Amino acid sequence: MTSVPDANDLTSADFPVHWPVLTRWADNDMFGHLNNAVYYQLFDTAINGWIAGGAGVDPLTIPELGIVAESGCRYFAELAFPERLSVGLAVTRLGRSSVTYRLGLWKEQAATEDARPLAALGHWVHVYVDRVGRRPVPIPDAIRSLLATACLN
């Protein structure tokens, strides 16, 4: 059985997929750092961008939808505009109709740095449902194949 690493020990090296994202001026809150809701937007953008591009599906027309059933985030360091960031994705559970992601967020730095410290650690659960009836359905094959490339176990 694979042991689960302590959140404080995770780095960018613990994520098979790295998705670059940019901050925007409007992302900063009145305290001068990224508003907590922005982290969720970045996670959502990375997951759906990776699936759309990697599985070759159009999220506006595919008959199955991955809807968010659960999400959470722990914050370790402040981020702010203007910064280049990366979202890391790892699949920690791949079920019949649901997938659980581990998500990391860190500052992009020189490509020579192999393990960047996390500024945030998130988790996200998508449940796939029929677009019309909103009942759980199996994860589409093209998406399942892509998800399998990021599985940790």
UniProtKB/TrEMBL annotation:
SUPFAM superfamilies: Thioesterase/thiol ester dehydrase-isomerase
InterPro entries membership: 4-hydroxybenzoyl-CoA_TE, HotDog_dom_sf
GO molecular function terms noted in the UniProt entry: fatty acyl-CoA hydrolase activity
Keyword annotations of the record: Hydrolase
Matches recorded under Pfam families: 4HBT_2
PANTHER family attached to this UniProt entry: 4-HYDROXYBENZOYL-COA THIOESTERASE FAMILY MEMBER, NOVEL THIOESTERASE SUPERFAMILY DOMAIN AND SAPOSIN A-TYPE DOMAIN CONTAINING PROTEIN (0610012H03RIK)
Family classification: Belongs to the 4-hydroxybenzoyl-CoA thioesterase family.
Name this polypeptide is given: 4-hydroxybenzoyl-CoA thioesterase
